[in-house]
From TrEMBL:
Coiled coil stretches, renumbered: 96-123
Keyword Flavoprotein in record: no
Species this protein is from: Aegithalos caudatus (Long-tailed tit)
GO molecular-function terms, A-Z: ligase activity; SUMO transferase activity; zinc ion binding
Keyword match Repressor: no
Protein name stated in the entry: RN212 ligase
Length: 167
């Protein structure tokens, strides 16, 4: 552990190998002398109820990192972050390759189906379609051509000119 720890009460540093330091759960560090002077289960700095953990080389690495120089932490974590980043990049590339292959297969299938549809349409004879207006006109007594005849026939019946018998 680095010398970044010191007692928050007497400001002693852990240079003496026989002097133990403890960390409270509220984030304060005390030497064993100051810890014994204070109240049990209470922080001497912030007066809150607390638990203590003796600082040693066997404690959790996350707690050890609280007392390490920042440049050492940066080197350590930048290496880990680089490894994680490389892993994720490879993973994403594999996933992207998979999706590209899947798209290529789907496009090929679409192309084949489109070609088959075109071949079927070329083989099929053209359908004769007759417009509905022309086919129904011959059967409908009220069609346009029959109306013309009715108009002319009614004209001769109701003409405005006098007939020969009237003159």
């Amino acid at each position: 552990m680095a010398v970044f720890a010191f007692c928050n009460s007497c400001l002693a540093e852990p240079r003496n190998p026989t002097l133990q330091f403890s960390l409270t759960n509220c984030g304060h560090v005390f030497c064993e002398v100051c810890l014994q002077k204070g109240k049990e289960n209470e922080c001497s700095v912030c007066r809150t109820a607390c638990r203590t953990l003796v600082l040693s080389k066997e404690i959790n690495p996350d707690i050890q990192s609280l007392f390490m120089p920042v440049d050492g932490l940066c080197k350590k974590y930048s290496k880990e972050i680089s490894q994680i980043s490389e892993f994720q990049e490879k993973y994403h590339k594999r996933l992207l390759t998979h999706h590209k292959q899947k798209i290529a297969k789907l496009e090929e299938s679409l192309k084949k189906v489109t070609q088959q549809m075109q071949q079927i349409q070329c083989m099929k004879p053209p359908e004769k379609t007759t417009p509905l207006l022309f086919s129904s006109a011959s059967r409908n007594p009220f069609s346009f051509s029959s109306r013309k005849q009715n108009v002319y026939s009614s004209f001769s019946l109701h003409s405005s000119r006098p007939s020969t018998s009237e003159t």
